[in-house]
Amino acid sequence: MPERVLRLRDAGFRGLSGAAERLVAYALERCGGQGVRAALDLGCGTGDVAMRLHAACPQAEVTGVDFSAANIAAAQARAAGIGFVWADYMDWHGGPFDLVVSDGVLHLIAVPVPLLAEKLAGDLRPGGVLVATLPVAGAPNRVLLALRRLYRRLPSSADRLALAFAMLLYRDIPRPLLRDRLPYLRLLPRLFGATEQQDFAAAGLRLLHDDVWPSPSMAKLRHRVMVWRREG
Q1: Fewest C-beta in 10 Å: which of 142, 144, 154, 227?
Q2: pTM listed for this prediction
Q3: 3-state secondary structure of 204
């Protein structure tokens, strides 16, 4: 990635509270919240999903992990009673968990999918559930990735124009949240398709649900929400 692109490790990322609330409600409906003893918010940003897990499952030990120091500092300042950890997930040793929730992160972890799947399965107890939103293979997302390839060639001044346009288009989203998302316009994440699903299955993760997930903007890749259970 060009040096002019803001490194995500040093960036902050504030989530949309409505989206976090919706995802947590979906996750707990699929796994049964009362049986959750330990839960992980993988790629926690500033803690929106973790905070809602903590509120919905007061009996559970909730952990949030993110590789951005700025995110973790903000999350720790916002909430007590949650173990926020600054780490690269692939190098971190935690768990095991009954529930892992990941909102728009798995496709950004730059390791081979079989290794990621093995890591996720290893962090779940037998019968534990993984709930993740991620972009899927298909024509709309391939078009968006092609547009991102073009955008990556533009100078950093293009980000200011993109922010100005986004502020006109999404008047209900605060400027800081829109600015957080600018670095992601230059990313080319993997799309999740049949091959990736086979890698998850080989790691012992059985797909239970695959549902449409709403997109907050035209620029964001189209996501689905998927639920896997770790086989015993």
Answers
A1: 142
A2: 0.85
A3: coil
